[in-house]
Amino acid sequence: MTSPIDGNPDGPAAAAVPTMSELFSLRGRIALITGGATGLGLSIAHGLAQAGATVVLASRNQSACESSARDVADATGALCAGERLDVTDERDVDAAFDRIVERFGGLDVLVNCAGINVRNAIEEVPLADFDTVLDINLRGSWLCCRAAGRVMRPAGRGSVINLGSALSSVGIAGRTPYCSAKAGVLGLTRAAALEWAGTGLRCNTLCPGPFLTDLNRPLLAQPERAQALVGRTALNRWGELHEIRGAALFLASDASSYVTGTELYVDGGWTAQ
To answer: Residues 178, 196, 250, 265: which is the catalytic one?
Structure first.
């Protein structure tokens, strides 16, 4: 007799197992990516659009979102739109989610990619800078998770992907605001996943290592500091922006239907050491 945990439960014939292309397909799905106009968010947008999703790029810069949305649409043939959204503003978040649901008929995937970093010794970081980093990286993710839950939970399905970092679990000097915020994202993800368990709505954290995004590009002017950062990875190189797409698609799609409350590191082996 085969047990259910083996994947072949006794009883009536189970539904046909989806093919791999079906598991990773996002056709008919609506995806919102905050911080989607540039960097990792924009790269993820390309990946989800290539998998068939209708993608909404959101940031505080409306023109940048619309321009990036046109680029994604031209490159992939998918429907893509730009949406102005300040993730730190409660009313702005709720209104943006309402507009997206009204326009597209629902929401299936949320990628909380809006983020900011401040680099300085803890004694030199103004409280206002600390608050700004937590507001965007953590408070913003929480507000968008709450709004997503209100939409996705009644629908009985959905995937929320919070952007953490290798620094969610590994500290580095001069990054106390960012490390604090990204560690908090792990706690948010785990608690939300438990609250949503059994509803069809999943929540996971995607944790990139050192990618050459706008947040990290200033380090190129300081080669020694740049190499010290990249040298922490096992692969000893920057991540290329397209290398985030496969992991994001996995978490967004039905391929990860048994995955919730965990973190997936795309960090070149940083956290392996």
So the answer is: 178
Cβ-in-10-Å burial (0-12, 13-18, 19+) of 9 comes to exposed
Pick the closest to residue 38 from 74, 78, 2, 69 (CA basis). 69
**pTM of the prediction?**
0.92
How many helices (H) and strands (E) would you count in the chain? 9, 7
User: By C-alpha distance, which of 46, 90, 60 is closest to 244?
Assistant: 46
pLDDT tens for each residue of 135-172: 999 999 999 999 999 999 999 999 999 999 998 989 98
Residue of 80, 84, 62, 63 lying closest to 71 (CA atoms): 80
How far is residue 166's CA from residue 31's CA, in Å, rounded to a whole number? Answer: 24
In whole angstroms, give the CA distance from residue 8 to residue 193. Answer: 26
Distance CA 221, CA 242 (A): 23
Buried b (16+ CB within 10 A) or exposed e, 46-83: bbbbbbbbbbbbbbbeeebbbebbebbbeebebebbbb
Length of the chain: 273
Is 258 annotated in the active site? no
